[in-house]
Amino acid sequence: MAEELNKILGYYINENTGRPVFPSIYGENAFLNSIVKPIYDIVKAEIANNKNDTTPHLDWQNYDDINEYFWSRWCFEKLKWPIDIGRNFFTKTTKGKRVGKTCFVE
Prior knowledge:
Domain 1,3-beta-glucan synthase component FKS1-like: 1-84
Number of helices: 4
Helix content: 40-55%
Protein name: 1,3-beta-glucan synthase component FKS1-like domain-containing protein
Oligomer: single chain
Pfam families: FKS1_dom1
GO molecular function: glucosyltransferase activity
InterPro entries: FKS1-like_dom1 (IPR026899)
Low-confidence stretches: none
């Protein structure tokens, strides 16, 4: 993402096409719909998994867990750019198939 932004702001010309580099995602509300909304949907689903604080902390991701995931070195290696919503981070339902806790349980 940062590399792409750097090329766009630097008016980089694609050697293969001879045209300026354009964003991978574009259109009306593209960033909101392609990046922010999928992440929001995960947070919303995890809140539902909490079941009003009756679920053990180990079984659901809170904001800190998601934040730790995005600060990890391999986050964008796993998610790719533009973000691949088919990755296990975006799995909303089945326990054990999503990313889950990244470092420790509070």
